[in-house]
User: Which sequence fits this backbone?
C-alpha cells in the first residue's frame, strides 16, 4: 500500500492532510456544512449568540433568533428548530411578558382588566427579560439541532480529556434508555408473577412501584460488575488509545472561532460604551 | 505447564458467616477445558472470581492460600494487570456491556481500542470475531436493544477478542436456546483449539460431558469430585449433590439396573448407542 493511500491529502476547500486519517479511521461527517463544524466551533457560536442576547436584550434579540433560524435552516433543521422554539421558548417568553405587565407595579397604567392592571413599566420589564430568554433559548435550540453528542465527546477526547471523564458523560447520557430497557425486563418478570402492568394508568402506577426496588438494586449491583468488566477490557490501560473515528477541526473552524471571539470582544466593547454614555 | 494453580485457597466474603471456598487445591493445565459444576451457592462463581483476582482484590474479605496464573502469584498484581492474562465473563450479560457504545461492532472494538491496537487491525479482528461468534447479523444494533441470549454472545465475543490465555466463563448459556448453546460451545472450543485455557461454569451437563477435559464438582465450598467427565459423573458425589447426569450416563446406569452393562461411560447418546450396538454389551441372564 502506498504512503499516499495511508494518509490521503485532501484538496477540497483549504488543502490539508491529517496523519490521523488512516483508511481504517472513519471521519464523522454528515455532509452538511453547519453540522460538520467542529463541536468547539458550534459551542462558541451558540455561546456567542446567547451572550449577545443577554448583553443587549430587545435590541439584538430579533437578530439573534433570526441568525439561529437561518443556521438551523442551513443545517437542514429549520422545521424541528421552529417546532421546539414555538412550543417552549416562545410560550415561556409570552408568559413572562404577560406576568410582568400585570404584576410589576408602576405608575403608567396601560389598561386594566378585572382585578389586574397592566403597567408600562411592567411591559418594559417583561420585554427586557423575555427578549433575553428568547435569545438564549434560540441559541440552545440551535445547538440541539447541530451538535452531535458522539462528535462532542470524541472532540473532547482528541483535545486530551481523560477517557474516564468522557466515559462518565457518555454513560450518563445512555443511562436512561438502559434503565428503561431494564425496567421492561423487571415488569415482564412481575407480569409473569401476576402483577398487572398493562391496564389503566392507576393500575400501572401501582405496578410501577414494585419495579423501583429491583431497578435500583440492579443498578447498584450492576455498577460493581460493570467496573470489573471495564477493567477486563483494558479500560485502565495507560498507553495511547486507538480511535476508530475522528472529528475534524479544519482551518476554517479555527478561523471561525477567532472571528467569533473578535466579534464578541467588539460586542462587549459596544455594550460598555453604551453603558458609559 | 500449569496455567492456573490454586493452593489451599480458603475465602470468606466480608459479612458472610462461614468460608465460601474451603481448602481449594486445583491445577489446570495450559490448553485444558475445565468445567466447574455444582448446585446453586456451591461457590462456583466465587472460585472463578478467585482465579480472576476479583476475590479478594475487589470483594475484599478473608483470603488464604495462593492463586498462580502461568506460574506467577497474582497476589501482587492489580486487577487491571491480571486482565491481560485472564478473560472473564459474568453470569449476567446486562452488566457486561461497556455502556458507552452504540453498536455491537463498537462494543467489540472497545477493548482493543483501549489497548491501542492500530485501527486496521482492530477492524480485521472485529470482523473476524463477529463472524466466528455468529453475531454478524446484529453488528449495527445497540447492545442494549438485544435479547439476553444475544447479549450473552456479544459479551463472550467482546471478551474472546482480547485474546487472553486463560478464559473464565460463568454460565454463558443460561439464557440461550439449544441451537445457540451449541454455537457458544463451538466458539469456546475454537478458543481452546487456539491453545487457550478454559474455565467454564455450566449447568448443562450434556455439554459439560461432551466438551470438557476435566470436571470439577463443587459443593459447600469444597471440591467434592474432580476428574474426567466419566469419572465425575459416575462418582456417587455427583448424585448426592443434585447433579442431573448427562442423558447417556443416566441411561447407562438405568440399563445397568436392568442387567445391561455398558462398557466404559459413554459421554454422549450417540456414543452410548455405539457402545451398545458394537455388540460389546453383555446381557446378564
Ligand atoms: N458478594 C457476596 N457477598 C457475600 N456473600 C456472597 C457474595 N457472593 C456470593 N456469596 C455467597 O457465597 C456463596 C457461594 O456463591 P456463588 O455465587 O459462588 O455460588 P454459585 O455456585 O456460583 O451459585 P449459582 O449456581 O447460583 O451461580 C453463596 O452462599 C452466596 O450467598
Ligand atoms: Mg454463580
Assistant:
Amino acid at each position: 500500500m502506498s504512503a499516499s493511500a495511508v494518509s490521503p491529502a485532501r484538496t477540497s476547500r483549504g488543502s490539508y492532510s491529517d496523519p490521523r486519517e488512516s483508511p481504517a479511521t472513519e471521519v464523522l461527517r454528515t455532509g452538511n456544512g453547519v453540522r460538520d463544524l467542529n463541536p468547539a466551533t458550534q459551542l462558541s457560536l451558540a455561546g456567542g449568540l446567547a451572550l449577545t442576547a443577554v448583553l443587549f436584550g430587545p435590541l439584538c434579540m430579533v437578530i439573534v433568533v433570526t441568525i439561529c433560524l437561518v443556521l438551523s435552516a442551513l443545517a437542514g433543521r429549520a422545521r424541528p428548530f421552529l417546532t421546539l422554539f414555538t412550543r417552549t421558548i416562545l410560550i415561556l417568553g409570552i408568559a413572562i411578558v404577560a406576568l410582568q405587565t400585570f404584576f410589576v407595579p408602576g405608575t403608567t397604567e396601560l389598561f386594566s382588566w378585572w382585578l389586574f392592571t397592566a403597567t408600562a413599566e411592567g411591559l418594559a420589564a417583561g420585554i427586557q427579560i423575555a427578549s433575553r430568554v428568547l435569545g438564549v433559548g434560540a441559541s440552545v435550540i440551535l445547538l440541539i439541532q447541530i451538535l452531535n453528542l458522539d462528535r462532542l465527546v470524541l472532540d473532547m477526547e482528541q483535545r486530551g480529556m481523560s477517557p474516564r471523564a468522557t466515559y462518565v458523560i457518555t454513560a450518563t447520557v445512555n443511562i436512561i434508555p438502559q434503565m428503561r430497557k431494564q425496567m421492561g425486563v423487571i415488569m415482564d418478570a412481575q407480569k409473569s408473577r401476576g402483577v398487572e402492568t398493562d391496564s389503566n394508568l392507576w393500575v400501572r402506577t401501582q405496578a410501577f412501584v414494585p419495579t423501583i426496588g429491583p431497578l435500583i438494586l440492579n443498578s447498584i449491583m450492576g455498577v460493581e460488575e460493570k467496573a470489573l468488566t471495564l477493567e477486563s477490557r483494558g479500560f485502565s490501560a495507560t498507553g495511547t488509545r486507538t480511535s476508530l473515528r475522528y472529528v475534524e477541526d479544519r482551518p476554517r473552524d479555527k478561523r471561525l472561532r477567532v472571528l467569533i471571539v473578535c466579534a464578541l470582544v467588539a460586542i462587549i466593547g459596544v455594550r460598555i460604551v453604551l453603558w458609559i454614555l | 505447564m500449569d496455567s492456573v494453580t490454586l493452593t489451599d485457597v480458603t475465602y470468606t466474603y466480608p459479612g458472610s458467616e462461614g468460608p465460601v471456598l474451603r481448602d481449594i487445591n486445583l491445577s489446570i493445565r495450559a490448553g485444558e477445558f475445565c468445567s466447574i459444576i455444582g448446585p446453586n451457592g456451591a461457590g462456583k462463581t466465587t472460585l472463578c472470581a478467585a482465579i480472576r483476582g476479583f476475590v479478594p482484590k475487589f470483594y475484599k474479605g478473608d483470603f488464604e492460600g495462593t492463586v498462580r496464573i502461568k506460574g506467577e502469584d497474582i497476589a501482587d498484581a492489580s486487577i487491571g494487570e491480571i486482565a491481560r492474562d485472564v478473560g472473564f465473563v459474568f453470569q449476567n450479560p446486562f452488566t457486561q456491556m461497556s455502556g458507552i457504545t452504540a453498536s455491537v461492532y463498537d462494543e467489540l472494538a472497545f477493548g482493543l481500542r483501549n489497548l491501542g491496537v492500530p485501527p486496521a487491525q482492530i477492524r480485521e479482528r472485529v470482523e473476524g470475531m463477529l463472524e466466528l461468534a455468529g453475531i454478524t447479523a446484529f453488528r449495527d444494533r445497540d447492545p442494549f436493544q438485544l435479547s439476553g441470549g444475544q447479549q450473552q454472545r456479544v459479551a463472550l465475543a467482546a471478551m474472546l477478542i482480547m485474546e487472553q490465555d486463560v478464559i473464565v466463563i460463568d454460565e454463558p448459556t443460561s439464557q440461550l436456546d439449544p441451537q445457540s448453546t451449541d454455537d457458544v460451545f463451538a466458539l469456546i472450543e475454537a478458543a481452546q483449539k487456539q491453545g487457550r485455557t478454559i474455565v467454564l461454569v455450566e449447568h448443562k451437563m450434556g455439554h459439560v460431558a461432551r466438551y470438557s477435559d476435566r470436571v470439577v464438582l463443587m459443593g459447600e465450598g469444597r471440591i467434592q469430585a474432580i476428574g474426567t467427565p466419566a469419572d465425575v459423573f459416575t462418582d456417587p458425589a455427583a448424585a448426592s449433590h443434585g447433579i442431573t447426569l448427562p442423558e447417556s450416563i443416566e441411561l447407562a446406569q438405568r440399563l445397568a439396573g436392568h442387567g445391561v452393562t455398558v462398557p466404559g461411560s459413554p459421554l454422549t447418546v450417540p456414543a452410548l448407542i455405539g457402545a451398545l450396538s458394537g455388540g460389546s454389551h453383555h446381557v446378564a441372564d
Summary: The longest helix of chain B spans residues 178-193.
